[in-house]
Known about the structure:
Keywords: Signal, Transport
Protein name: ABC transporter substrate-binding protein
Subcellular location: Cell envelope
Radius of gyration: 20 Å
CATH class: Alpha Beta
Organism: Methylobacterium variabile
CATH architecture: 3-Layer(aba) Sandwich
Number of strands: 12
CATH superfamily: Bacterial extracellular solute-binding protein, family 7
Order of helices and strands: EEHEHEHEHHHEEHEHEHEEHHEHHH
Structural class: alpha/beta
Distance between the termini: 52 Å
Number of domains: 1
Main location: other
Strand content: 15-25%
Amino acid sequence: MQRVGAGLLLAPLASPSVRAEATALRLSMGSPMPQHHPATTCLVEALDAIRAESNGRIDITLYPDSQLGSELSMQSQLRSGAIAFTLTSASSLQTLAPLAGIPGVAYAFPGYVPLWAALDGGPLSERIREALGRFGLRAFRVVDNGFRDVITGVRPITAVSDLQGLKIRVPPSPLLTSLFKALGASPTTINLAETYAALQTRVADGMENSLPQIEATKVYEVQKYLSRTGHSWDGLWILAHGRTWDGLPRDAQELIGRHFDAAVERQRQAFSRMNAEGEARLRAKGLVINTPDRAPFREALVKAGYYAEWKAKFGPEAWGALEQFTGPL
C-alpha cells in the first residue's frame, strides 16, 4: 500500500482481492462555482466516472458554490493539504502566484483560438504552471469562465465616463482591481456567494463577470443593464495538492487526469453554447443589453499607464511570452 496525503492508505487499483471499502481514497474538492455552472456539472460527471471506473476506490467529493469558503480560503486549504483538489480562478490565484493572472490582461486576447493555444501548452502555460508549482500545487487544464462584461443596476456602460465612481464587485484580483481603478470605477472585493445580496442591497452598484456566470448566479434578478465590455478573460485552474498527487499510484493519477481532461473539454463546449445563447435568454428576462465600442476603453487604459504597469510587474520575459499569442499590447 502507498500512503497518500493526511494518513490515507490506497491499495493499488489492480488488487481486486482487497475490499473497496477498506481501501477507498476519500478526498475533497472545493469550488466557488454555482451548482448549475458547466464547470460544476462537468466536474460532477468526471468525479462520478472516476468513482465508477475505480469501483469506488477513488471517491472525490465536490463542494461547489463556496461551501468550503472563499477562493482564497480554499487555496490556503489546498496548500496545507486539508483538501486535495480545488477549482480556482486565474484572477484570484494572482494574489498567490502573480503570474497566474497574466491571461486576464485587459483586451489582450482577441478570441479563443490564441487563448487556448497559449494556455494548453507553450511558454506562457509552462511559466504559469512553474509558478504554481513553487507553492506546492499541481495544475491540470483550465476551464473557461469567459470574457467578462459589466452588469449594473444604475446605468448602462456606453462609455468610459459611465464607470466613474461605480462601485463594482470584482474577485480578489489585483489585475481586475487595477483595471477598474484605471477606468475611474471603485472596485470592491466581495465573495462570489455573497454578491447577489450585495447587489440587491446596493452595497455594490454592479459586478463584472462572464455572461454564463451572470446567468448562473441569477444576478439579473436584481440588476437591469448588461454591457458587453469584454474587458478581460478569466478561467479556472483545476489544482491538486502536490504531495497528495505525487503519493497516488500511477494508475490512479492516469484515471483522474484522464477524466479531468475530458471534463475540461466538455465544459468548454458547454460554456461556448451558454455564451452563444445566453444573451437572448437574458434579454427575455428583462435585461437591457448594449455593446459599447471597446477601443476607447483600451485607449483609456493605455493613457492611465495600465499596460506599462503590468509589463513591469510581470517582467519582460513573461510579457513577451504573452505577446507571442496576443500581439503587441
